[in-house]
Amino acid sequence: MTDTDTQGGRIVKLAVLVIAALLLFAPFLFQDIRSLEVAARICVFIVLVASYDLLIGYTGIVSFAHTMFFGFGAYGAAISLKQMGPGWDAVIVGAVAGIAVSVVIAIAIGLLSLRVKAIFFAMITLAAASVAMVLASQLSHFTGGEDGITYRTPDIFKTATKLMVNDEGKVARLFGVKLNGKLAAYYFVFASSLILFTVILRLVGSPIGTVLKAIRENEARAEAIGYRVVAYRTFVFCFAVVIASLAGTIYAIWLKYTGPDTALSFTIMIDILLMVVIGGMGTMWGVVIGATLLVLAQYYLRDLMGSAAEALSDLPLLPYVLDPDRWLFWLGIIFILLVYFFPKGIAGTIAARGSRA
Amino acid sequence: MEQLNKTLERFGGVNLLPVAVALVAFVLIGAPSSWVTLTVAGLAMGMMIFLMASGLSLVFGLMDVLNFGHSAFVSFGAFVAASVLGWLAGWLGSDSVFLNAAAILLAFTAAILFGLIAGWFFETVVIKPVYNDHLRQILITMGALIVSEQIILAVWGGTPMSVPRPQFLEGSVLIGDVANEVYRLFAFVLGLIVYLALYVTLNRTRIGLLVRAGVENREMVEALGFRIDRLFIGVFMAGSALAAMGGAMWAGYETLITPALGAEMMIVVFIVVIIGGLGSVEGTLLGAIMVGLVANYVGFLAPKLALASNMLLMMAILLWRPNGLRPAVK
Asked: Taking the CB of the first residue and of the last residue of chain A, which one, N or C, has fewer CB atoms within 10 A?
């Protein structure tokens, strides 16, 4: 990676390290449920967005169906946990089923559209995602419809589970943190996200990653050198889809609930797009920064907007503009401005500083 | 086989596809009266979708710009027309056909004007800076779609809005023993008029000649000294206005509209454009009619399949012709 040799590149890497450390010790640093919720969401979204960046940033293909595959993983786990009861076998069956469905559909979409222009692919994935969304709400006996599914996860993740007991037979505490199932669940999310993220990093650093970049930069030339562009594109699409599906499974286990809003809605797709663009397309470090910033903003800035609107309720127009319902409006504006002025995102822009290219 | 192909080609080739679909459906449905009703509904729906999709297709063909925000014009058109019709409720209720027609004319004019202005704004502010960069184009127009959807939500609110129809378009007429909704016939005729106007403009006027030449080979037209970019703004505005008009007609057809309308129609519009082949007006019409007919037939024959029918249709056609039925872009 050439961009990490610059001073800016070091700043980016440092920021990522800080984020990783914060996530690792999150249960001990921020001891309330909401913060843990935020930390887990950040972990899952880093993986999800990293897999999306493989497509959009590294290979240059725009898919609008990434949430659909995320949803397959989530619904796979949810349905199997509901039907088979809480247990690791159900988790594995759900994850495998989610991956299988995702890969089959990815190959179908890929063969149909990856050989033609990027735009066809974007349009077709958009159509496929909308069909999946409608199907999820229609097949309500299977997916729970709009209400979604609640289920129990393996016993070790129950809040009541005691990982360690002290002398009195109560839950032991470490630095004031209860060592209960919630902690186990968080570290399950953290560890599996870390593994998946490392796998993606490994792929990006491998020769395949270089070929993908070559395809992004000049498709005809890559083809001429002898790389089969369609095969590589289909492969990376399937790879990204598998990761997204697994991320969905992890998130489903953490939330103990799966519904259209948490796993399938188009809002998640918009979130993913925003995270990639904010962080910077084509850098894995940027993904971490983008996902962290946006999730934090979602949880805290929105509240801030709400209270600001209330505080300014006497003034004309301002409270209306700051209403939390306008949240998506402002995100959209920011999104457009970012694509215009900082197409490389935060990480890309900072990393380019100090380089004499 | 070759002989058969040639004969088919002479009678219109792929243009026969809707006819074939209609014939198959006729056999499957069995009852002529419901078949006629469904066919008229399908044609009307197809015409409205054609209005929404034609601009998108032309814009792509001419400038290689794909506007993911196109459906914003559709929903804006629908809401503007609905608001105008709401204000003119008194005219709509009256018995005079003249007042009725004036109200609907005003509503459509408002939608079209809005489409023109919004199209101009969209082209100069949003799209111009990202010519020739597909990735950023997709992202930016998608962002613009989000913003415009939020604007609609802020202005008209999230609750469904009912659209009053003029008196003379309510109810249905009997043709033979088949009942047809008047509004569907109206939509079909209006769509046909617009298509003919578009056809004449593209094939019989100098501007149309330039547009077609631009779709075929932009550099060549520019080399001959024509300002394609100015032409492009015009086409973009016209396309947006058509989309707004399609939205206005759709509002009257559905009679109950929500801000999600744009997102729903976007999928259909994309499917139509892909089926028809990007860049060709005839292809778009063909695709729109196919989608309209198939949606109505399947909705009648196998309601459970209705959701996926458009997708299945698209997949079948793409497997058969990867570039769409009548592509103009090489």
From this structure: C
Chain B nearest-CA residue for A114: B322
Is there a contact between B88 and B166 (Cβ–Cβ < 8 Å)? Answer: no
Residue of A107, A112, A126 to mutate for B, most B C-beta atoms under 10 A: A126
Tens-place pLDDT, residues B262-294: 878 888 888 888 888 877 888 899 999 999 999
Q: A118 to chain B: which residues are within 8 Å by CB?
A: 134-135, 138
For chain A, say whether B28 makes contact (Cβ under 8 Å). no
| The pLDDT of residue A318 | 67
Residue type, position B307, single letter = L
Per-residue model confidence as pLDDT tens digits over A224-256: 988 888 888 888 999 999 999 999 999 988 888
* Model confidence, pTM: 0.81
Q: What is the pLDDT of residue A2?
A: 47
**Angle at Cα B265 formed by Cα B263 and Cα B268, nearest 5°?**
120
A77 with A91: CB under 8 angstroms? yes
A1 assigned to some structural domain: no
Pick from A61, A64, A119, A275 the residue to mutate for testing the B interface (most B CBs within 10 Å).
Answer: A119
3-state SS assignment for residue A164 = coil
- Taking only the tens place, the pLDDT of each residue in A308-322 is 777 777 766 666 666
Residue type, A205: G
| B312 and A CB contact within 8 Å | no
Helix or strand or coil: residue B175? strand
| DSSP states of A199-212 | HHHHHHHSHHHHHH
What does the block give as tokens for A58? 């590294």
A2 domain-assigned = no
Residue A357 lies in a domain: no
Residues of A in contact with B278 (CB under 8 A): 119
* pLDDT value for B328: 67
Q: What CATH number has the domain bearing residue A345?
A: 1.10.3470
Q: Which of B:249-288 have CB within 8 Å of A?
A: 263-264, 266-267, 270-271, 273-274, 278
Q: State which residues of chain B have pLDDT below 50.
A: 330
| Single-letter amino acid, residue B142 | M
Instruction: Provide the domain limits for residue A281.
Output: 7-352
Alpha-carbon distance of A108 to A201, in angstroms, equals 26
Residue A85 lies in a domain: yes
CB B242 within 8 A of CB B51: yes
> How many domains is chain A built from?
1
Check CB contact under 8 Å for A127 and B138: no
